Amino acid sequence: MIRTVLLLLLLALAWPAAAVQPDEMLDDPALEERARALSAGLRCMVCQNQSIDDSNADLARDLRILVRDRIRAGDTDAEVLDYVVSRYGEFVLLKPRMSARNALLWATPVLVLLGGGLIAFVNLRRRAERRAATLSAEEEAALKSVLDERD
Amino acid sequence: MSVELGHFALVLALALALVQTFVPFVGARIGSLSLMRVGEPAAITGLALLAAAFAALMLAYVQSDFSVANVWENSHSAKPLLFKITGTWGNHEGSMLLWVLILSFFGALVAAFGRNLPPTLKANVLAVQGLIASAFLLFILLTSNPFARLQPAPIEGRDLNPILQDVGLAVHPPLLYLGYVGFSISFSFAAAALIDGRVDAAWARWVRPWTLAAWAFLTGGIAMGSYWAYYELGWGGFWFWDPVENASFMPWLAGTALLHSAIVMEKRSALKIWTVLLAILTFSLSLLGTFLVRSGVLTSVHAFATDPTRGVFILAILVFFIGGALALFAFRAAALAPGGLFHPISREGALVLNNLLLTTAAATVLVGTLYPLVLEAVTGEKISVGAPFFNLTFVPLFLPLLAAVPFGPVLSWKRGDLVGAAQRLHFAFAAAVVSAFLAFFLIDRGSALAALGIGLGLWLIFGALTDLALKAGIGKVEPAAAFSRFRGLPLSVFGTALAHAGLGLTTLGVVCVTTLETERILTMQPGQTAKIGGYALRFEGLQPFTGPNYTEDRARFILTGADSVRLGELISSKRLYTARGMPTTEAGIRTMGLSQLYVSIGDATNDGGLVVHMWWKPLVTLIWIGALVMMGGGGISLFDRRLRVGAPARRKAGPAAAGEEAA
User: Fold this and answer.
1) What residue spans define the domains of chain B?
2) Which of B31, B39, B455, B531 matches a 20 to 30 Å C-alpha distance to B607?
3) Which bin fits B605, alpha (ψ -120 to 50), beta or left (φ > 0)?
4) Tens of pLDDT along A87-110?
């Protein structure tokens, strides 16, 4: 199985570069631009981490044509994606949907940022308090006189 | 014969690495100086043995000795000499050998140049290094022996994967490994400090140059890999968020954070516990990267090894070192005294923000890379996490970081003044804003996003220059005095400014190419002309060409400027490597100023035309120039007198060391 995937990968990789072919492209530049943007977010199923927009595999070409067909038929971007997912599964999306299954994936940046920020904040505060508490009244007075002198 | 000697040297190196692990460690426990000192000759001899083993493998490649399985699998007698040499590490076994060679190189550097290190610290560091080397040498000998022979010997080899037959590959892995493995020194220092239960500012001063060197190499390695993918794969992209790229990017993010927190620890004795943890995490991410790439757990564009026994072995190494170090950390971290105090608005505070954002970015990349693997392993469901996810999560984390960078160096330690810092930066800010406006109105496809991005990049560059100007007192003191102050600034100040300016250059390059790039896909007949980016390309036709181990179809284009001035030729080709029957594309790239014209060709059509994909990539080279500047900044910092390994400690340590000799 893995060997097959590798072989496919090598083939897909090694194909000459021009991924999107001139004969696939839509005449209306606005529609074509939408097709390119959508293609960049769809995975070439037989490649590794390559979008159908970059890939030269036959399957990627079929999918590119499918996307353009749907666009020509008047689908919105969301409808095109829904259609592709209904046929190929969520694996085809390079940006996973925000669902319960992917909650941890999407929440990580926010959780780490907030958690880390909280830890840093609490540590700073606690240490400042601890230090403040360790100064006796005399020390405070001495400190104040020194500071006053400097001013 | 030399192959068997190489194999023998490898086995000896393992034995020696075990000696290097246990003898100094025991010495440090019982306080025996003579046992502790065993670590030094062991580390240096280990390097010599591994160098010999590596040389033996390289010799087998140069001589095309196909009785060696590894050479047979990855080389060919018709391959150019350069690629025979670089093929030594263009495969799993050879690259693991390079990995340990570099590991022992760093260990030997500590042994040879760490004269001022306290003996127990040095013994512990070398022991941890020895342990890492032992684990990986065992891995090589048991699962990935590069010296295995074939009987009978085949007549011809199977050739190296053609996309790896490239000068970029000659440079990319060694640089990357110098970075990856360089972080092992920070890791060993952290583990040694935890074993000792003592971490102080001097520790940070010893760790910082190693981290800096590793970081500079990793920066160069990643940039090289990115440029290689850019011109070799023919897709015109510079970063794909491929898991293998992420594997090298995560240690870079963590290493960048470590570099900055070590400054706080050295200068202000604060963030000690965090710095130690970060040193462990950075090398853990390097190990994870090695696991991801070497185990074949991801089959991605770079992967060239698939064998589950290897994966399990590396996973065991990974768990042992990361788990062990984190357990050590959990037991001992409480013993480390917390350090100095600082106000949130201060240079320390700015560096904490830097660490927070970099760590979050690293965590985001980590989860994004591993999530599909874990999900599939646990539930069997398959999802993809690709560029659109990372662009959506990583970029918003990095933008505030970039915006905050110029503030760091101009804030004072302990208690800073944000308004004052903003005032000091007003010139840089004004210049960046004006440039952003100019960019918006001057660029004909003016987009707000491009203008903001250009402003951000220039803000970093002007901010770095402002920092230098402020530290030299330009505008405050007389020009002559300012000049002499400027010349007297410590090299680390220049290093910081250069690295931050380099980051600005890379930002500029990324922004310009992602927002302003133009692209055309068309079928061209010979003699037809296509316009792109203010230039015109006339297709002259396809010509066959034969190279040493490949044949190719070359498409010739004549390039002319806006006023029909002929600017020369551009060749883009499709290559077929005969030994493996594998085609590759060789993009035609023409650099004009800092921008590039990028042409890759597709199939010929039935009517004699050719599918051509061309891009105009404005300022694209800044992406890699910026990385080189960052690398240069790291390099310059490394030559700062205060950082030269233990330089200030030498004077202090002098009498004490003499005393030890006497005793």
Assistant:
1) 1-165, 166-221+235-333+349-398, 405-517+623-630, 520-617
2) B531
3) beta
4) 988 889 999 998 888 999 999 999
Indicate if the alpha-carbon torsion angle B489, B493, B498, B500 is positive or negative.
negative
Question: What is the CA angle B318-B130-B14, rounded to 5?
Answer: 95
Match domain A2-92 to its CATH number in 3.40.50.300, 1.10.8.640, 3.30.70.120, 2.60.40.10.
1.10.8.640
Q: Which of residues 438-477 of B touch A (CB under 8 A)?
A: none
pLDDT for res B307: 57
Between chains, do A109 and B397 touch, taking CB under 8 Å as contact?
A: yes
Q: Where are the alpha helices (DSSP H) in B473-560?
A: 479-488, 491-516
10-residue stretch averages of pLDDT, chain B, 663 residues long: 92 96 94 92 96 96 92 88 89 92 94 87 94 96 91 84 78 90 94 86 85 94 91 84 91 95 86 91 93 72 53 87 93 76 84 94 94 84 90 94 92 82 87 87 77 93 92 82 85 93 96 90 91 91 88 92 85 86 86 92 86 92 96 91 50 37 33
Cβ contacts of A10 on chain B, cutoff 8 Å:
582
Q: Regarding the domain delimited by B1-165, which CATH topology (the fold level of the hierarchy) does it fall under? A: Four Helix Bundle (Hemerythrin (Met), subunit A) (1.20.120)
Decide: B633 and B219 in contact? Cβ < 8 Å. Answer: no
Contact A51, B235 (CB under 8 A): no
Alpha-carbon distances of B532 from B113, B509, B520, B572, rounded to whole Å: 55, 19, 7, 16
- DSSP-derived 3-state class of residue A8: helix
**Which residues 336-365 of chain B have a CB within 8 Å of chain A?**
338, 341-342, 344, 352, 356-357, 359-361, 363-364
Residues B290 and B305 sit within 8 Å (Cβ to Cβ):
no
- Tokens at residue B148, please? 């295995």
B60 contacts: CB under 8 Å, gap ≥ 6? B2, B3, B6, B68, B70, B71
Q: What is the DSSP string of A69-89?
A: HHHHTT--HHHHHHHHHHHH-
Residues of B whose CB is below 8 A from A102: 371, 383
pTM of the entire predicted model:
0.90
